[in-house]
């Protein structure tokens, strides 16, 4: 089982981003995804800066470095950003929308597909593999059973990656909800989402943590946590577990999953989070509770 | 400019045709379509009747098969495409790449439209679907500003259809899991958002509450209109402030942009609302028919008539409308 650091979702200052990835080099992660996933306006690192950082990391580390593209493209500027990433000439690219798939397939390059590309069945998987997709990160709402059905029906399997820890990306909008909350126009947002390195929690009027607002993106209020399902993930033939970057406790999260692959699984190392999607239930539910073991 | 109208039932289809629809889109009564609500949509017998009425009046019939096929029941989605082809529908509206491959191979003469659920927002994304599957038309997501729509129209090699009026999805369509996160039922796989069976209306001491799978979506004072608990239109707490953090109950209305959309070369306007009544369909279709005829006559001198505005507002969520993402300040 390989461990991957997914692309960062939040907007962090440049120095913090550099420092964060520097720290990640000394972890047991196998794969690092880098790039702006959420908002083409974010400019602490532009496309060229991400490319430079990725190339630097690739030079000094034997981890696989993958460049991720924007998820929701709206403007020509967004598209040009994606084109620069796809044209990098060196590193594997994770396509997060069909624009990137088109560019990469036309160039005859291998590519991976992120969880926001809607691959829900074996036929879609086969179509995209015929165009060069080598790795598939399943949509976050897919269950273990559905994944198994897809993989059982595949003649040829890609590498399979599952979003295993972190706040799940649930939605993308034209509207910036952080700007809306602050009473600002998106065009004059002052990049205030940088003030929320963990996003902005949205609760029900009864205090239930429902979602996290992160610019134009909405994340799950609770992190998904599939650590308790580690054995099942292995049995299903999952190749890679994606851990989503967060500002604090990232090393502990990586360590907890690394221990699992060294036969030292301890679910108590991490907060319980949620696992509803994995179990075929509403995403916000927690099914495999403490002490109940890694039941599907 | 083609007026594409919704029908969740035969009476709604008749209302659409009677009031000036150029094309009507329907779905089969299962999870292969994105308005999979109880009592709605068409079985084989009614689909045939629908076709007969459409043909008698010289209009077009589109069939929306626009959810993502589940791995254990792909054959159900294939069968839906076969049924639409068997009807000789004028087009099928698809989102799933695997299903488009099936339609291309099995029914090469069937016209394919790319559903809004596929969330194609750039010329290369549209080109992907054109090259791979020969799509003739794409429905654009409700996330683009007018300027972005114009730029895309200039670059696109396929016909473009945009939303004119109806419920406003504020998230990029096909990329929203809010409903499945809370209820387990997803627009992508089940064809429902905030499903009725998960909805609860509860009279509490603090007012009327709406809940979705037990989660409090909103709480209304006596003088407030209680809306359907769609997740993106609930009132939540952010930073201690109670607010419509994502969006207020409102409907999309792009009628004021008709001259610009026409000048940009947009070939079709879509009205949302297969879940709505025949009376609703009749009113909004008649209003949009008049407006499109007017813009064809008057071009840039087109102005939205007060009576149209009133009819549309009356039929809107929260009795209000917005230009949505077409208008930058909304974003």
Characteristics of this structure?
heterodimer, A: 296 residues, TIM Barrel, 9 helices, B: 331 residues, alpha/beta, 2 domains, 8-stranded parallel β-barrel, 11 helices, UbiV (chain A), metal-binding (chain A), iron (chain A), metal ion binding (chain A)
Quick structural overview:
The complex is a heterodimer of chains A (296) and B (331). Chain A has 296 residues and is α/β, with parallel strands linked by helices.
What does it look like?
- The complex is a heterodimer of chains A (296) and B (331).
- Chain A is of the alpha/beta class and 296 residues long.
- In chain A, 29% of the residues lie in helices and 21% in strands.
- Chain A has a single domain (2-167, 223-279), classed as Aldolase class I (TIM Barrel, Alpha-Beta Barrel).
- Chain B has 331 residues and is an alpha/beta fold.
- The two termini of chain B are 27 Å apart.
- Chain B folds into two domains: 2-168 and 250-330, TIM Barrel (Alpha-Beta Barrel), CATH 3.20.20.70; 179-243, no CATH class.
- Chain B has an eight-stranded parallel beta barrel with strand order 1-2-3-4-5-6-7-15, surrounded by six helices. A three-stranded antiparallel beta sheet of chain B has the order 9-10-11, with no helix packed on it. A two-stranded antiparallel ribbon of chain B has the order 12-13.
- Classes of the chains: A alpha/beta (296), B alpha/beta (331).
- At the A-B interface, α3, α4, α5, α6 and β7 of A face α4, α5, β8, α7 and β11 of B.
- Chain A: GO terms for molecular function: 4 iron, 4 sulfur cluster binding; metal ion binding; peptidase activity.
